[in-house]
């Protein structure tokens, strides 16, 4: 289970205020799982520089790869690029390569490449750009941190260009068995199963539906035959 | 803007693997905002003791109140209570008050109060119990940390019993204006507005729909007249 690890940092007030519901985290979690990369931690912080810088430092030290979403647009509350520069001790300014991409885009569409839009070309000095096929303004990578937009369609496009550059692990296979009994009935046998199959990850996700309790038991591992064997044994326990 | 602050710690692999999509965070964010409490940070960590303990210590030190969800059921992957005890240097064992609640419940329903179910009565020594009107197994509070179940219907019931015990702030009022222009056109005037109304929080949440760009501008504050004045001025800017 030595798959590469990843963390995600979601930047912005909109999820914390309950205004919107996360979409990017759910998307990234699914994509990383397919690649055999374990999403190990997610943090959501407000548009506050000290919080963002502290989270960037903590996550980039603890995990192989970090993805951020949000805060790289042209408005006054978009401070992610400056925070990344500070966290990694790099200078930041409007960079020629990013400005050229945006200038060409706005020239072609007859829009002004104004001061606000030039903010989107502020990139830390040693960053490499991440392609944005949707709306041009690039994301960027600094060391092991990939900085991406928060708008879901742009976030997803940036993930698609970053993922092939990462070293994945063995794909994590997963099988689920729904058991219509309370976890209190399931827990004893399940603990024995977890002890026997200690190379697998066995999780119990309880639910309540129409007043009845049950749990989805999810068994994950990189060896399909072992996952099969465990789920078969589990099914036999609750026939 | 000196409203009380809160953080949330979501414990469990199911969101990190992309298997399920968060519901509790979204619910709690909305409830806290109504109470005038700022949800300032959310962390999601896997069922791993060192990660959970570290997050509990960091969040309980940094924020007025912390809510956790998940990991207090009867199965082998439910380790939250033990982590809370460790984070706060308290001992933990099956506690008589919690065991009595559960014993009565299982006696009444003719189910066995077995070893697995007794796990749900493991409560840190100095914790106070949080009522669970749905499925009896209690949550608990240690210092400024409220430990709650992950099943949404139970989580919501526990939030309902904890919230009235907290000191809220002035309710945060919010108005939103949708502007069907790219953020690059909006950003300049919006920065001026934010400078003029620096007692308010002004956020820009861009979207893309059918190929067209726009942004929802959300203005928040505790003084309704100021929020009105700012949104009126904003609307005038983009007529």
Automatic annotation (TrEMBL), chains A, B:
It comes from the Bacteria. SMART domains: MoCF_biosynth. It holds the Pfam family FLAD1_M. Residues 7-170 form the MoaB/Mog domain. CDD domains: cinA (cd00885). SUPFAM superfamilies: Molybdenum cofactor biosynthesis proteins. This is Molybdenum cofactor synthesis domain-containing protein. It comes from Shimia isoporae. The lineage of its organism: Bacteria, Pseudomonadati, Pseudomonadota, Alphaproteobacteria, Rhodobacterales.
């Amino acid at each position: 289970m030595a798959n590469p690890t990843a963390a995600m940092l979601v930047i912005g007030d909109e999820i914390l205020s309950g205004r919107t519901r996360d979409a990017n985290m759910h998307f990234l979690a699914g994509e990383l799982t397919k690649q055999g990369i374990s999403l190990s931690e997610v943090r959501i912080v407000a548009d506050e520089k000290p919080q963002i810088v502290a989270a960037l430092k903590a996550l980039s030290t603890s995990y192989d790869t970090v993805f951020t979403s949000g805060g790289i647009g042209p408005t006054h509350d978009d401070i992610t690029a400056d925070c990344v520069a500070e966290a990694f001790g790099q200078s930041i300014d409007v960079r020629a390569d990013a400005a050229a991409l945006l200038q060409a885009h706005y020239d072609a569409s007859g829009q002004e490449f104004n001061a606000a839009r030039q903010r989107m070309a502020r990139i830390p000095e040693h960053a490499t750009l991440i392609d944005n096929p949707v709306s041009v303004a690039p994301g960027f990578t600094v060391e092991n941190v990939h900085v991406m937009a928060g708008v879901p369609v742009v976030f997803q496009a940036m993930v698609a260009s970053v993922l092939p550059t990462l070293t994945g692990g063995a794909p994590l296979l997963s099988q689920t068995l729904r058991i219509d009994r309370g976890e209190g009935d399931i827990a004893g046998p399940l603990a024995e199963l977890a002890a026997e199959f200690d190379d697998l990850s066995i999780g119990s996700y309880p639910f309540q539906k129409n007043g009845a309790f049950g749990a989805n038991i999810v068994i994950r591992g990189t060896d399909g035959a072992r996952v099969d064997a465990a789920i078969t044994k589990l099914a036999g326990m609750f026939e």
